[in-house]
Amino acid sequence: MSKQTSPKENKLVLVGAHVSIAGGIHNAIERGTEANCNAIQIFTKSNRQWKAKPLTNDDIQQYKTARNQSPIKVIIAHASYLINIGSPKQETAQRSYEALKVELERCNQLELAALVLHPGSHTQSDTQQALKRIGSYLNKLFEQVNGKCLILLENMAGQGSSIGRTFEELASIIDVVSDKKQIGICFDTCHAFAGGYKFDTKESYQAMWSHFDKTIGLNYLKAMHINDSKKLFDSRVDRHEHIGQGEMKLKAFDLIMNDERFKDVPKILETPKDHIPGDDIKNIAILKGLID
Ligand SMILES: [Zn+2]
Ligand SMILES: [Zn+2]
After folding, report:
1. What is the model's pLDDT at position 124?
2. Full-prediction pTM beyond 0.70?
3. Residues 72 and 16 sit within 8 Å (Cβ to Cβ)
4. What number is the average pLDDT over the span 135-139?
5. Is the dihedral angle over the CA atoms 236, 241, 243, 248 positive or is it negative?
6. CA gap 277, 66 in Å, rounded
7. Domain boundaries, the chain
8. Residues less than 5 Å from ion ligand 2, measured at CB
9. pLDDT at 4 over 90
């Protein structure tokens, strides 16, 4: 890793957190700014409900004004946890598809860079079929929605029958997608660790990313979720923890923060929020402190 880079304060790293939109989407910008973020993630609607009230022109204008006056450079969204376009149940898959379409349209209205999606769950049906279903729904989505917002498939911890724990599964979804420019990956550190990927030594870190590059391709990596893990390595249980307080070694975050290949990849915390914005401020400071 190069040591001859500019001093820390001059180096732009895209680091931030998931922030709430309570009271209106424009409020997320203020919350992110208060937490020292220059990149944020939001839900564009309630993440535990199917329904969304359409965005009004006022909502959009207020949001854009706030954004333009803020130091925030990248804004991405996370799709609702209810969505499962991999479901073998036609009704669930179709309902999920419609909801995802509305979310992608909202993201385009808000000029967001990307929408992070949990690939889905096969609910004890055939995994290969589920991977194909997800890919086909994404093809339909990209045909029906015009806009620049990408869909980023997130790697999962592998709880229950969730899809997307392995790079191979993510790659087989991408294989089905015709328009590769619309699709990417969001790498969640907690999910990878709990899902059985080691990357906390120089050697394991290099090995994991070369595996990622071979199976998926590093060019697909468009965002990262930076979370420590409450649960053990390979536990397949998804519980996020503050950076440095979980089961992961700080070295894993150190390697990511100093990896020149990921300089332009926004790094978003999804760590607990007992104190707002204090917790995010602390975690962001830890991450920035790791930069050589
Ligand atoms: Zn997620
Ligand atoms: Zn995540």
Report:
1. 79
2. yes
3. yes
4. 98
5. negative
6. 18
7. 13-289
8. 188, 225, 270
9. no
